[in-house]
Amino acid sequence: MFELIPPAIYMILAAALIGPARGHVRNAIVLGAPLLTLWFIWQVPDGVVYDVAFLDYRIEPLEGSSVRRLFATIFALMAFVGGLFAFRQAKWYELAAAYAYGAAASSYHLACRNANSPPTKAMSAKIVANSRRTELPSSGSMR
Question: Is the separation of the CB atoms in 69 and 41 below 8 Å?
Answer without folding.
Answer: yes
